[in-house]
Amino acid sequence: SDAVPSLLGEPSTSPTTVVLVATDQPDDLDRAIAALRLTAPAATHVVVVADAPDEVQAARLPEPTHDGTARIELEVVRTSARLGWAAALKVGLRRARGAVVIRRDTSVEPTGDVVTPLREALGSEDVAIAGAFGLRTTDLRRYEEVASGDAAAIEGYLFACRRADAAARGPLDEAFRFYRNLDIWWSLVLRDEGEDRPPRRAIVIGGLPVVRHEHRGW
């Protein structure tokens, strides 16, 4: 992922960047982008990381848009080898231009604006990460789902963090080639304020307008 030029050291030029990872599910990606075009606020920046997609997906990758006439500004980054979950997300983070970065799995389809509520949740400095689906735990070993309110971690299907935090607390550990547990680890990294200081919060926003389809990461 380090071969991809990073924008993290430059000022943000968009309110929000949404990161999507494309592999071998072109219908899922088409649905995800169509939903963004219908529901995302204007000037939303979208990065599609094509993680060595198969031929069918490669042929159906969206055309980049950078002229300011479309609702979303779309960038496509292709890798020459399958990097895995964390490295692909890291590529998206390196290209992010939004002050807030939203990672959205292509199995999650917004039916309304989810970008604005996620951005607003991060308006409080004591909130490190926000999303639609959360987890709570008493021992950092066993987890159960949280539908709204405070959580220990945000599930990776739909989560948001500040770009500055991602830059300051990265890089992502590329050993997470599979998606499992990356979201928990990253949530805890973003929340951690150091020894003897209380962690920042992870917030689950209940009732976000989304439909969950089959998750392909399995």
Can you give a write-up of this model?
The chain has helices at 26-39, 55-59, 85-95, 115-121, 163-169, 182-191, and strands at residues 14-22, 44-50, 72-78, 98-104, 108-110, 127-131, 134-136, 144-146, 149-151, 153-154, 158-162, 201-204, 210-212. It is of the alpha/beta class. An eight-stranded mixed sheet has the order 3-2-1-4-11-6-12-9, sandwiched between helices. A three-stranded antiparallel sheet has the order 8-7-10. The chain has a two-stranded antiparallel ribbon with strand order 5-13. The chain is globular.
Overall geometry: globular
Assembly classification: single chain
Mean pLDDT: 94
How many whole angstroms does the radius of gyration measure? 16 Å
**Helix content range of the residues, please?**
10-25%
Q: What distance lies between the first and last C-alpha atoms, to the nearest angstrom? A: 22 Å
If helices are DSSP runs of H or I spanning 4 or more residues, what is the number of helices?
6
In this structure, how is the largest beta sheet organized?
A: 8 strands, mixed
List the secondary-structure elements in sequence, H or E: EHEHEHEEHEEEEEEHHEE
The main sheet orders its strands as 3-2-1-4-11-6-12-9
Strand count: 13
Per-chain topology:
Blueprint: E1 14-22, H1 26-39, E2 44-50, H2 55-59, E3 72-78, H3 85-95, E4 98-104, E5 108-110, H4 115-121, E6 127-131, E7 134-136, E8 144-146, E9 149-151, E10 153-154, E11 158-162, H5 163-169, H6 182-191, E12 201-204, E13 210-212
Parallel strand pairs: 1-2, 1-4, 2-3, 6-12
Antiparallel strand pairs: 4-11, 5-13, 6-11, 7-8, 7-10, 9-12
